[in-house]
Amino acid sequence: MTTGEKIAALRKGNNITQEQLAELLGVTRQSVSRWEMDLAFPETEKLIRLSKLFSCSIDYLLSEMIGRDTQEAVEITADTCVAFIRECGYFFLATCVNSRPRLRPLGMILSDGQELFIVTDSRKSVSSDLELNGSVELASCNPVSGKWIRISGIAKKENASFCHEMVFSAYPMLRKKYEEGREIFLAVYRIHMEKVSIS
What is residue 55's three-state secondary structure? Predict the structure, then answer.
């Protein structure tokens, strides 16, 4: 990821608009936009303020993803994954049950800062597939940059009420769909990420 892509991902992951970030840093919204499109580069003072604001190192903001040959990468957080995927608009989820792989597009994903969560309906086949085999892969492509994110991990169903509240907070329109006893059909899966790459 470039510095601009990281700034955009961190900003979106923290639910901050370009205007709000510009105000926090004392620059124009156009400056933030140019940074995120890699048309301009933040001054050193702004990089320091960005690193403090987003609780990341300046090295993280400046370093590019390492070459594909080494298979090493800068740490990619759950928040970064969510920001990347939300910018794409959707992601593909691959499951495999009885040696039969299935691929389907999904759209609802969120993070608690540590791990990813995906959301579906327990009446859908994806939910029954995940109950039989939690091994999953997620992938999404940014149509602007052409970069892909690929995540391998294990999905485990979460029934805790705080998970449902987290989902309703991120996707308020679901409250109406799952009101009056229908929340039993809301299926939230925690994804324990084993491998993540952006290239």
Answer: coil
Q: Give the whole-angstrom CA distance, residue 88 versus residue 149.
A: 10
Residue whose tokens read 């919204």: 29
pLDDT tens digits for range 94-127 = 999 998 999 999 989 999 988 999 999 999 999 9
- The enclosing H or E element of 194 equals strand 186-198
Q: What does the block give as tokens for 72? A: 């090493």
* Residue with the two structure tokens 């969120």: 110
Going by C-alpha positions, the residue among 97, 82, 168 that lies closest to residue 132 is: 97
Residue 79 near residue 55, CB atoms below 8 Å: no
How is residue 26 annotated by DSSP? T
The predicted model scores a pTM of 0.64
The token pair that represents 102 in the structure block: 């299935």
Across the beta sheet with 135-141, the strand order is 100-106, 91-97, 135-141, 148-158, 186-198, 116-121, 109-111
Helices (H), ranges, 54-171: 58-62, 78-88, 125-132, 161-170
CA 78 to chain centroid: 6
Q: For residue range 141-182, what is the model confidence (pLDDT) as tens digits?
A: 988 788 899 999 999 999 888 899 999 999 999 999 998 888
